[in-house]
Amino acid sequence: MKWTAVLISLFIVVTSCADKATINQEDSFFDISVFVDSLLNDNASYVDVNRTIKMAGEKEEKELSSADLKNVFEFMKQFNINHPRKYDKYTVSKSPDKISYVTKEDHFEIKNCTILKKGNRIQSIEVLYESESIISSSIKNIVWMPEQSLIVQNSFTSLWSQPKEMEIKWTYVKK
Question: What's the rounded Cα separation, in Å, for the pair 137 and 3?
Answer without folding.
Answer: 54
